[in-house]
Amino acid sequence: MEAVNDYISQNKERFLNELMELLKVPSVSADPKFAADVNKTAELVADNLRKAGAENIEICKTAGYPIVYGDKIIDNSLPTILVYGHYDVQPADPIELWTNPAFEPIIKKTEIHPEGAIFARGACDDKGQMFMHVKAFEAMNKNNSLPCNVKFMIEGEEEVGSENLGVFVKNNHERLKADVILVSDTGMLANDVPSITTGLRGLSYVEVEVTGPNRDLHSGLYGGCVANPINSLAKMIASLHDANNHITIPGFYDKVIDLTDEERAEMAKAPFSKEAYCKALNINDVLGEEGYSTMERGSIRPTLDVNGIWGGYTGDGAKTVIASKAYAKISMRLVPDQDPAEITKLFVDHFESIAPAGTTVKVTPHHGGEPAVTPIDSIGYQAASLAYEKTFNKKPIPVRSGGSIPIVAMFEKELGLKTVLMGFGLDSDAIHSPNEHYGVFNYFKGIETIPYFYKFYTELSQS
């Protein structure tokens, strides 16, 4: 591994500059006006894989944005690692809150990142983390140090639900045949406290529409006489949690698998400071389901949150109106063994049942995904743990993530493979928010650690 590490050290400036170039392209999959940029980014990813030494590179067309495939098969008798990542990013909005333009990456020092952090949309989620794998592969390949086979599958629709990835996977079982899937789209506890994500929450995402009168009404003439959809929606949403912040939808918790006391005690070993947590978010206290710690609320417990709410007049000045309609977008994070389709149906039935007189309700389901768990006794996890221990000089802590990566469960269902989640981001990196950033330390630590995963996975698989 010495030659690999030397190659990384000698090429650090180039590795960083190449990432910066990738970050300049606004590959926003949610907004059609960026379609050309999303496709351009797919070409850039393919070009970088080609330069790194990957073979059989193809920009695979889908009904949406393309999937970039590439591989390096050195010996069919050796294990094969399938690397997944995504090159699309979230919208930059609200643009005015960025301290630098979202697609003009800049490196700035911060309290958490004294070596500097790259500020740009996609820096951490997921261009920076995906690109670590390309550069780690390059370092291994250029030094004839690749210990096993590798395949890359980099998509452009993760931020909009990966709608076409499932079709691609279903139609390419043979091409994607592997022993384990490796993903870096998660984080770790701190730069001096490495951790590996062993679980992900699932997701049910819906949009609700509450309709009252057939048109907007004068609030003086009709106020107090008809149902106000905005008032009604606010009351309906408020009723979805009780005084203990327990979700009130009947049947919502029926299939939730509760962790044992021993498992919860193991989770509690992860360092957590309520004071630091509140300070980082500029809040005066935490809030959540009674009976669970903040770490547990954000990982092993299901949640329901309003992601957006609107209706009526929101312009300057006053307009005394009772709106005809009110809307909200709601996400529910799920845990094993909650089924997103079942939870969506429970939500629809309940939300329709609590609609006040004089209103009608329409619920439109959007994307969802199943929760997933990676056993810590698997070869993949053990190899990852050894890799982190090698580069961080301490054993990583297994943690459950509150986020959702629906494709992880899909991979297991379609390909029969478990996924190892080797994330190097931090909670403070502001993904999906203005001023998203990714530590220069984290970027290079990922590039240094990934080759060790290849090494240890191959050794453990053959032992």
How would you describe this protein?
With 463 residues, this protein is of the alpha+beta class. It folds into two domains: 2-200 and 371-462, Zn peptidases (Aminopeptidase), CATH 3.40.630.10; 202-256 and 302-369, Alpha-Beta Plaits. It is built from 14 helices and 18 strands. It has helices at 2-10, 12-23, 35-52, 127-142, 165-171, 219-222, 229-238, 261-267, 274-281, 294-297, 340-353, 379-392, 407-415, 440-462; strands at 55-60, 67-72, 80-86, 106-108, 117-119, 149-155, 180-183, 195-200, 202-211, 217-218, 303-311, 321-322, 325-334, 360-369, 372-373, 397-400, 419-421, 437-439. The strands form five sheets. It has a six-stranded mixed beta sheet, with helices on both faces. Strands 11-13-9-14 form a four-stranded antiparallel beta sheet. The radius of gyration is 24 Å and the shape is globular. The two termini are 20 Å apart.
Q: Would you summarize the structure shown here?
A:
33% of the residues lie in helices and 21% in strands. It is of the alpha+beta class and 463 residues long.
Task: Detail the topology: elements first, then pairings.
Blueprint: H1 2-10, H2 12-23, H3 35-52, E1 55-60, E2 67-72, E3 80-86, E4 106-108, E5 117-119, H4 127-142, E6 149-155, H5 165-171, E7 180-183, E8 195-200, E9 202-211, E10 217-218, H6 219-222, H7 229-238, H8 261-267, H9 274-281, H10 294-297, E11 303-311, E12 321-322, E13 325-334, H11 340-353, E14 360-369, E15 372-373, H12 379-392, E16 397-400, H13 407-415, E17 419-421, E18 437-439, H14 440-462
Parallel strand pairs: 3-6, 3-7, 7-17, 8-16
Antiparallel strand pairs: 1-2, 2-6, 4-5, 5-18, 8-15, 9-13, 9-14, 10-12, 11-13
